[in-house]
Amino acid sequence: MDQSLYLISFIALAALATVATRALPFLFLSRHSQHPLLEYLGRYLPPVLMVLLVVYAVSDLPMANQQWVISLGSLMVVAVTQWLSKNALLSIALGSLLYMMLI
């Protein structure tokens, strides 16, 4: 098999698999959109995942030098900005900007 044909077929298969994994839950769960379990998961799962991501990111901070103070300060800016403005892009941009300015 020609290498370019192999790469094109691989990319097409990966794209098809990606579209299928994104679309199939909507197709299969559309009848059950008002199910209490799905409503519960839709309400509480995103904040829980965000907390897990923050804990994972903070758990790897180096405690040597004062790098962790800068990281936690930027994290607090993101949290406060998100709490006050409810704008994720603004929160991420301000936290990233502060972090880059302090490093």
Structure keywords:
flat; mainly alpha; 4 helices; 103 residues; single chain
Describe the structure.
There is one protein chain. This protein has helices at 3-29, 36-59, 67-85, 88-102. The protein is 83% helix and 0% strand. It has 103 residues and is mainly α. It contains four helices and no strands. The protein is flat and about 55 Å long.
In short:
The protein is mainly alpha-helical. It has 4 helices and no strands.
Give the number of helices. Answer: 4
Number of strands: 0
What string gives the helices and strands in order?
A: HHHH
Terminal Cα span: 51 Å
Layout of strands and helices, then pairs:
Layout: H1 3-29, H2 36-59, H3 67-85, H4 88-102
Helix pairs in contact: 3-4
